[in-house]
Amino acid sequence: MLKVSNLECVRGERSLFKDVNFSLEAGELLQVNGPNGSGKTSLLRMLCGLARPAHGEIRWLGDNIRSLDEDYYNSITYLGHLNGVKDNLNAIENLRISSALAGNGIDESTAYASLQKMGLVGREILPVKVLSQGQRRRVTLARLLVSDTVLWILDEPLVALDTSAVLLVKGILEQHLEKGGMVVMTTHQDINIAAIETKRLQLN
Amino acid sequence: MFLWVIQRDLLLAMRQRSDVLTTLFFFIIVVSLFPLGVGPEINMLRSMAPGVVWVAALLASMLSLERMFSSDYLDGTLEQMMLSPQPLILLVLGKALAHWMVTGVPLVLISPILGFQFDLQTDALLVLAVSLLLGTPVLSLIGAIGAALTLGLRGGGVLVSLLVLPLYIPVLIFGAGAVEAVSAGLGASAHLSLLGAFLLLSLVLAPWATAAALRISTE
Questions:
Q1: DSSP state of A90
Q2: Tens digit of each residue's pLDDT (9 = 90 or more) over A84-119
Q3: Average pLDDT of chain B?
Q4: What ipTM score was computed for the predicted complex, to two decimals?
Q5: Would the pTM of this model clear 0.95, i.e. be above it?
Q6: Could you give the CA distance from residue A152 to residue A162 in angstroms, rounded to a whole number?
Q7: Is A60 helix (H, G, I), strand (E, B) or coil?
Q8: Domain ranges of chain B
Q9: What residues of chain A lie within 8 A of the CB of B84, using their CB?
Q10: What's the sign of the alpha-carbon dihedral A71, A76, A77, A78?
Q11: In this complex, do A101 and B15 lie within 8 Å of one another by their Cβ atoms?
């Protein structure tokens, strides 16, 4: 479904990576590994169409994602290393707004239930700016619970999370993969996510 | 969807009222300084009123331009908007309209009161408000292009003014011209029609240019 061929990323004069090839089918997980500065984030930004590859192409269901544009965005959820939450809004507002922007509006009780699952009970009406880093990350990750997209592109989703939250996220990802979803993620943590097939991509 | 963006930005403005009030008070103070500075010569005040109010409106709406996209850019919500299945043009239009509601509408509402300080007649006051009503959305729409182009640059605020102020000139000329025409006993309809035309033109073109600029700035 997702097919990447001969991808090259150039930053300034330097080529970060080239000849990256992989494909991803339903239920598969791709873990992108590599040291800091090896281009993991750049790769993920290319996969969601935010950055343009210097060479190569990314195809979704056979079509180049450049030509799909908004149709492609219906199928992906991207969580970058910025949380994408507004400091002055509370968790429920943040979750409802980001879901609505992703074309999947939810009502307040659904938002509340997902935040509850993410262990944010009692904090859902506080402005996000008073929450801790890990709690903000949980607010961001709650989007996964309400998303109806196939391909999840996650940049360091486990940063700042405690062990219980890591297990929670692991569970969410496994459930998504079981339903035939796809996940591309980067992480520096040792985590074993059950999938039909786990692919690994090493950048250096 | 489009409404969600407007609603979100209005909600954020409500939570952070200082931004809205800064713009409004800047406008009020700048306009009020002129009668104090040039003295109570009624004829002079009357003739300079439209220009003064309009220039102050340009500068006031410029004040908050930089924040239009930069806070969303810094916390990652802009990225999420760009990945929305909705056309980016619509989102940009929503943001520009929200910017106008927060910074433009208060200026329109307060302008007749400020006009009193310059001894404007009732019909001139009315035309002043109408010209601002037609002109301030253009300022937000054109300003959005500048804000998007300078996104993530250091010293973006200064650059925005250099980019955007020249583009504001036609709006300034016809906005202030409308009020002068009424004060001189001529009709303002020609000036107002042109302002209306600017508004329609920028409604169509500005979101498109802004969306393109955003894609470049965030790449």
A1: B
A2: 899 999 899 999 998 988 888 888 899 899 999 888
A3: 91
A4: 0.87
A5: no
A6: 21
A7: strand
A8: 2-218
A9: 70, 73, 101-103
A10: negative
A11: no
